[in-house]
User: What shape does this take?
Amino acid sequence: MNVLTNRFARVGLGLFLAVSVCGSLPGAARRAGAAEVRRVAERLIPFAPGGEVRIGDKNGRLVVEAWPRNEVRIQITRVVRAESQTKAEELMKGLTASVEVRKDRIDIQSQFPKRRESIGLWDILGRKVASLQINYYVQVPSRSDLVLETTNGEVRAHGTDGRVEATTTNGDIVVEDARGNIVLSTTNGEVHLTNVSGDASAHTTNGSVVAEIHNLPAQGRVDLETTNGNVEAYFANDLKATLEAVTTNGRVSIAFPIVREGVMTSRAIRGTIQGGGAKITIETTNGNVEVRRLGDRRP
Assistant: This one.
């Protein structure tokens, strides 16, 4: 298989359309002489359905949506805030994004400049610590697999039919109208799944998990877990599953009739729903667990 590879060391070059916006920050930051530099770049890439799109970021927001075209549209927004316009422009030169295109895969990777200067308390109080971000808005064919990773920022995916893997550390994850296997993980943030079908795994540590699953195959699997937060799961009326729902400091509430297995308490319920089928595991430590019907979902 032939591999076509294009690398762009800086998104402001070549086939990208780049726009620059420079300005001062409001309030106290302006008084301290802080400045912001922003660059926006776009690229449109022919891409057949069934491929994979990967985004690797560190500080920034990732938003991916399906659209009815056999193309991938990438919009990259780089933002630098620093103590002065000169410093912001200097840092912007090292803040780049590379795009690598293959026949059935696109890799997008953020590259941040190395920081060597020392930072003291007065620098922080004086707002001299620079902030660097790369935010992505990407449109893909609906039948695409997604692998999305950032550290400080939220992740959103909407309308895709393929696999979705999303990871962040400080930020929420939201997946809507998706029909494929979903694996989501964050640490300090909430996880929301709305109108999804298929296997789903959602994990966080500090935040709630809310999952609305419309179609779960008989051999499907749902795994929802948090430590400090509530878990809400909504399923269709014809749900057939083996369920295990557990909390340590909270309560468990199940709206479906369940045939218990072992001892059932207000904090732990194990059993089968309508004869069993898909495997559902829901767990939290400090919070409540609620398993409801889709019709019970509050707007």
In short: Residues 5 and 200 are 33 Å apart (CA to CA). Residues 1-32, 116-126 have pLDDT under 50 and may be disordered. The longest strand covers residues 35-46. The radius of gyration is 22 Å.
